[in-house]
Amino acid sequence: GYRFMIGARTLVGATMAVVGLAVAVGLVGGDLAGWGFPGSQGLWALGYGAAGALIVRSRSDHPVGRLLMWTGLSSALVQLAQTLGVTYEIDVLFEAANSFGWMVTDILLLGALGRFPDGGWVTPWARWFGAVAILAASASGVLWLAGGETQWLGDVLFFVFQANLALAATVLVVALLRRGPVVRRQTGWVLFALAVTGGLGAAAAFVEDGAGGGVLSLVSAASVVLVPLSIFVAVTRYRLYEIDRIVSRTLSYGIVLVAMAAVYVGVVVALGSLLDLSGNLEVAIATLAAVAVSLPLVRRVRLWVDRRFFRNRYDSARVVARVADELRTTVDLKHVERRAEAVIEEVFAPEEVSVWLAGESA
Hints:
Layout: H1 2-29, H2 40-58, H3 63-87, H4 91-114, H5 125-146, H6 151-177, H7 181-206, H8 211-222, H9 226-236, H10 243-274, H11 279-309, H12 316-327, H13 333-348
């Protein structure tokens, strides 16, 4: 374990050094165009490397931790190649990093997903998905380097790689969600972080340039660390709070914010069209109207979201009463035991359920 911790520190240190070198190359060359969002790819590399090291520190033999550390180093090397290609106009290096380098990083992430969250394979198919990804990526890279008339076949294999990646992610996530309440909660944390990061990235892409767009781009860039952080929380179960409550509140406040924005824009447009008011007065009235609408709306939206999407937590008494009626005429103790365990897992999502019957030894 101690020897492997030295290796973990070495990988994280190498990732930090490569990211720092990429930034230095961009600054010296006076062009950070290859850096993408401000530092997002560097944060991606450092985030995955650090999350992997933390997992290894908690569980030294966990394969997900090792895979995440290699993911961090791989993405840092890709970033360095991209920055060198943009700064010094080395098109071949830039294209190789984009086409082949990111495929290596994607394969490492696929391996981490296949061994998530306890280190065992989620499903036997995970190994086949990984094998297909490695073969398609290797063949595509070789054909890309060869060029010439074989380029079209390399493009086809790259498409096969992407399709296999999407199919594997879908199959593995579905398999994880079927493995019980604890694994569903662990998977939910990662999916929630992916949704937040993707939503912020989409919003940053559509917002116009300016102060608001710049701030949103920075927030979107920083949000990439949420995914590796969620993987660390899920694997180690570190303060693994009920994800349903967080998703419920996020949806509720998101709906309220959209409603407030609609009211604000509607009031400004209406006042501008119907009344000849100054701009400051329009903004003040629209702001007051949006706040007035939000106050009674928050509670109602929260209740609607909970009843619509997270009803199990609020129907626990009804579920217990229904099951009690079902079991009144049942004399099979094994059936009663299985039904009781299923209801407890459905309503309360405990980590472990055990049944003790009177007369049995403890």
